[in-house]
Amino acid sequence: MGSGSVVVRRPSKPLAPKPRAPKSRSSRPGSFDAIRARAAKRKGGDAALLALLPKVASARTLAKLTDDRALAQIAQRIFSAGFVWRVVESKWPGFEAAFLGFAPKRLLFQPDEFWSDLAADARIIRNPQKIKAVRENAQFVSDISREHGSFGKFLADWPADDQVGLLAVMDKRGARLGGRSGQYLLRFVGKDTFVTSHDVVACLRDTGLDISEHPTSQRDLARIQERFNAWAAETGLPYTHLSRICAMSIGENHDADTIRRRGGAEE
C-alpha cells in the first residue's frame, strides 16, 4: 500500500445485547413459591410442612353436612369468638343438650321462655346475646335449607374463588357471622377457604399487597380474594392450604406439636 493511501476502517459490528434470564416464579411479585419455600424451611422440610396442612372436604362430603351439624358449628364458632376455645369445647356436650341437638326446626318451635331460661342454664356459657344469635341462626339455616336443599349443599355449591361473596351473605342473613367467625365456620366444616388471621395478613402485606393490618373493608377483602385466586391458579393448591402455608411462613414459628394441639382449623 502506497504512502499516500488512506486506510478506511469499517466500524466494528456492535455486540448484540445478552439475553436476560427469565425471572423465576419465586422472584415475581406476589408469587407463592418463595412463601412455600420459607414455610418449608421453618417447619423442617416440605414433607413436614405438608403433614401440617388440614384436610379439605370434597364438595360431595360438604353437601352431606346436615342442618343440625351446620347450626352446631355456627353456635360453637359464635360462643368461641373472644373466648377460650378449650372451655367451649369442654362444655360442648352441655350445649348439645341445652340446644336440643341444634335441630333448627325443633328450636324454632320453642317459646320465648325456652330461650330466656337458657340465660340461666349452667350447662352452657350464659351469654344472652350469643344465645339470641343461635335462635336467629336457626332461622337462617332453615331458610337456606329450604332454598338450596340443605345448608351443606349451599356451602358446597358456592365457588371458592368468591369466598368474600359467601361471607357477605352469611353476614347479612345470619347473626354474628361477620369477620373471622364466618371464616372459621367455613374452615371447621371443611369448606375450602382462607382465614385472615394475623399471620396470614402479615404474609399478604409482606408480598406488597396494599391492605390494612386489620382488613375488614370490602376493598381489602376483594384484594385478598384476588391474591388467593392468583395463587390458586399458580399452584393448583386449595385455598385452605395456601392460607395455612402463608401463616406458617411468617410470625412466631410454632412447632408441629403446638400446631396440632391447637387444632387443624386454627391459623
List the helices and strands and how they pair.
Elements: H1 33-43, H2 46-51, H3 59-63, H4 67-80, H5 85-90, H6 92-98, H7 104-108, H8 112-118, H9 128-148, H10 151-157, H11 163-173, H12 179-189, H13 198-206, H14 218-235, H15 239-248, H16 256-262
Helix pairs in contact: 1-15, 4-9, 4-12, 9-10, 13-15
Could you explain how this protein is built, in words?
Helix content is 58%, strand content 0%. Residues 1-27 have low confidence and may be disordered. It is mostly helical. It has helices at 33-43, 46-51, 59-63, 67-80, 85-90, 92-98, 104-108, 112-118, 128-148, 151-157, 163-173, 179-189, 198-206, 218-235, 239-248, 256-262.
Uncertain runs are 1-27
Find the CATH topology of the largest domain: Endonuclease III, domain 1
Shape: globular
Distance between the termini: 85 Å
Structural class by helix and strand composition: mainly alpha
- Radius of gyration (Å): 27 Å
Mean pLDDT comes to: 89
Number of helices: 16
